[in-house]
Design brief:
The chain is α/β, with parallel strands linked by helices. It contains 5 helices and 15 strands. The chain folds into 2 domains: 10-160, 3 Solenoid (UDP N-Acetylglucosamine Acyltransferase, domain 1), CATH 2.160.10; 162-201, no CATH class. The protein has helices at residues 39-42, 163-172, 179-184, 186-191, 194-198, and strands spanning 10-12, 22-24, 29-31, 44-45, 53-55, 60-61, 66-68, 107-109, 114-115, 120-121, 126-127, 132-133, 138-139, 147-150, 155-159. It has a 7-stranded mixed sheet, with no helix packed on it. A 4-stranded parallel sheet has the order 2-5-8-11, with no helix packed on it. It is globular, with a radius of gyration of 19 Å. The two termini are 29 Å apart.
Length: 201
């Protein structure tokens, strides 16, 4: 669970997550100086289902990266947004008023995504492969592959590569390589070119 010897603030999430509503790919990690092991409770909020949180492989989640799930939604079609039924008592007889709220489906994070400090992802968002979410960004809409987004609400600042290179990178899909092949090609993955990845053995 702790990939860095002697550094307990960094945890791999796959062996840590216990909820059936959360799926995390290999080597994805979370960095938190206080309680990284509490990720499922502190950083995945209002997650009552049935929507899932799916995070790909090789993602880097900075301290405070938070996923707000559909359970945070309140009714907005009446005079009040207050969820009376959850308070219990006679109000609980009207629990049907807070069930079946509209949702946007699963929240899906691609592979090789980097989240900066205190990034926040709202329900049902899809974040593409190779994207970067800037510190403090509030992601309310889908993020394209290899885009850098920032702000509140998050907007595309720029693409990391041109369209042709992005197409080629998605075809290579290095994150699906066997760990041995990744190990042989770490330099190309981190500092090489798309052509070098295409030719990797």
């Amino acid at each position: 669970m702790y990939p860095m010897a002697g550094v307990e603030r960094v945890v791999l999430l796959k062996p840590l997550v216990e909820s059936e509503l959360v799926e995390v790919g290999e080597f994805t990690y979370y960095d938190d100086p206080v309680a990284p092991e509490a990720f499922g409770v502190e950083n995945v909020l209002y997650h009552y289902g049935p929507e899932k949180l799916r995070i790909g492989k090789y993602c880097a989640l900075g301290t405070g990266t938070t996923f707000i799930m559909n359970g945070a939604n309140h009714r907005m079609d009446g005079p009040s947004t207050f969820p009376f039924p959850i308070m219990g008592g006679a109000w609980a007889e009207h629990f049907d008023l807070i069930t079946g709220l509209p949702g946007r489906g699963d929240t899906v994070v691609g592979n090789d995504v980097w989240f900066g400090y205190r990034a926040m992802v709202m329900p049902g968002v899809r974040i593409g492969h190779g994207a970067i979410v800037a510190s403090g960004a509030v992601v309310v809409d889908d993020v394209p592959d290899y885009a850098i987004v920032g702000g509140n609400p998050a907007k595309v600042i720029r693409k990391r590569f041109g369209d042709e290179e992005i197409t080629r990178l998605l075809a290579v899909a290095w994150w699906d390589w066997a760990p041995e092949k990744v190990t042989r090609n770490v330099r190309k993955i981190m500092a090489g070119s798309v052509t070098e990845l295409e030719e990797a053995e």
